[in-house]
Amino acid sequence: MKPSYLSSTIVAVICMIIILSSSCPQSRNEAYLPDPGVVSFTFRDQFSQDVPGTLDMIREMGVTNIEFSNLFGKTATEMRALLDERGMVCTSYGVSYDRLVNDVHAVAEEAKILGAKYVRVAWIPHEAPFTIEDAERAAADFNRAGEKLSSEGLYFCYHNHGYEFRPWRDGRTFFDYLVENTHPDYVSFELDLLWTVHPGADPVELLERYPDRFRLMHLKDLRKGVEGDFSGRTPRENDVVLGTGQVDFPAVLRAARNTNIEYYYIEDESPDVIERVPQSLEYITSIKK
To answer: What is the mean pLDDT of the chain?
Structure first.
């Protein structure tokens, strides 16, 4: 039996609805990334005066995930209790290079007490300029410590700081050396966006080149007009609200979708973080798929 004219019309309308629905923009609540956390260093001044009150303030901003690089006089057990009371979590625990190398078992225990999945180091001790000897030493240390942390069910991440992007050889940088000479099962990376664009590297290109090696990201922006270098240092006033500086966040987050990055943390080193973090949070969560 041939379908009636009415039936054919209904089928056509349904097909048109499906086509239009598939081509419509994503709804506004579909952001590029999970709810971002914050780095404790952002609120270092507040934490140094009142840890519980600062956690309350961060929670009121709508942030529940913190990467700690300082426990501000608290033990891991005490900090975990404060987080649990507020329904907050620590997903990454930052420690010094020295502690990673010389006290890795204690670091692992603290990270597990905090509930962190990642242990992070953000600076390789060296005399400027950063050299191949520095990179060789760091790669060996990262492999050893990373293997120990892996045996404890933890991931190790190295956080770039700018000096690693100095040219090495054959068009590659010392950052490339660190990636190429560390074991992917034991060593991953946290991409800090400010400390990528400051020395002139391209975060999108890095994410596309090493999609499996990045697991964390610092959402951080560099003031427009600032010309960087390989020092790993810049005045704190060069930190700006996300989306107002040099980083192309839509492009970065688009590239990050195809990587192993699990957690994103807002970091701001300026003195006006109480006003600025909510602005950065509003911006970054407004970027849609």
So the answer is: 91
| Residue 172 CB contacts under 8 Å (≥ 6 apart), including other chains | none
Of 216, 227, 218, 220, nearest in space to 276 by CA: 220
The CATH number for 161's domain is 3.20.20.150
Q: How far, rounded to the nearest angstrom, does the alpha carbon of residue 91 sit from its chain's CA centroid?
A: 11
Instruction: Convert the pLDDT of each residue in 192-225 to its tens digit.
Output: 999 999 999 999 999 999 999 999 999 999 999 9
Residue pLDDT, tens place only, 248-274: 999 999 999 999 999 999 999 999 999
**How many residues belong to the chain?**
289
Q: Look at the chain and report how many structural domains it folds into.
A: 1
The answer to whether residue 244 scores a pLDDT higher than 80 is yes
Q: Is 18 domain-assigned?
A: no
Residue at 204 is within a domain: yes
Instruction: Print the domain residue range for 60.
Output: 34-286
Does 5 reside within a domain? no
CB 218 within 8 A of CB 194: yes
CB atoms within 10 A of CB 226: 16
